[in-house]
Specification:
By secondary structure, the protein is α/β, with parallel strands linked by helices. It contains 11 helices and 9 strands. Helices cover about 40% and strands about 20% of the residues. β5, α8 and β6 form a beta-alpha-beta unit.
Amino acid sequence: MVISTISETKKVLENHRSTGKTIGFVPTMGALHQGHISLVNRAVNENDTVIVSLFVNPTQFNDKSDLKNYPRTPESDIKLLKESGVHYIFMPSEQEIYPEKDTRVFDFGLLDKVMEGEHRPGHFNGVAQVVSRLFDIVEPHRAYFGQKDFQQLAIIRYLVKQLKLKIEIIACPILRESDGLAMSSRNLLLEPDKRKSAPIIYKTLSEARNKVNELSVKDLIYWVIANINKDPNLAVEYFSLVDSETLQPISNWEDSSSVIGCIAVKAGNVRLIDNTFYK
C-alpha cells in the first residue's frame, strides 16, 4: 500500500500499534538496490509491520546539482518493495514533510566535524531534520540503516539519544557488487570507465588491512590515498582512520581499540563512500 500523507500514515500505523504489533522502518531516498533490500528483508523478519519511506530529502544536499542529478526510480522501487513483503510505502511530497522551512539546528558535538561533515557542510543537519521528522511520523520500534554510511549511523544513534526516542537503531552490513564495489544508488550515475575503476577503492581498503602491523597510521593513510589516486578515473577526497565510537582521527594504532577507515572518492562527477574496520 502506497501512502503519500502524514495523516494516513499515522492512522494506519496506530491501528497496528494499538493491537501490540511491532513496527519496523527503513528510511530511504529511493533508487533502491539489493543493499536496501537487505535492510528491508531484515525488517520484515524482525517486525510484524514494515514501512519504507521513499523521499529524496533536499535539506541534506549541500550541492544542488547533486540533488538534481540524484537517481529517481519510483516505479521499480515500489515493485521491489512489494515483492519484498513490505506492508506500507510512504512517498510524501516535499511540501508534506516540510510545510514550512525547517530551521532546526542540531548539535552533534564532534561527530559531524570530521569526514563527511567537514566535506559536506550542513549535510548531517539535513539528515537529522528529515530522520527526526520521519521518526515522529512513523514512531517505529526499530529503524534500519546501512553501515556504508557509517558516520550517518553514529549521528542517528546520537540523535535518538538526544531526543530520548524509544527506537532501536539496527545497523546492517554493507552489501557489495561481485567486484567489491559497495552497493549505492549513485553507482547508477557512473560512466562505464569510472565504473570499471571503482572497485579499486575497496580492493585498496582491504589490502591496507594487511599493512597495519608494518605501517604507521600516517603512512597507511598515505599508502591508501596514493594507491587509489594512481588510477586517473579516481580522486580521493579524504581517507581517515578514526575511533569507531567517537569518529575522531587516531594518530597511533594504540589510540583506539576499535579503528575504522572511512573514505570518499570522486569518480568523475560521482562521489563514492566506503569503509572497513582495521582493528
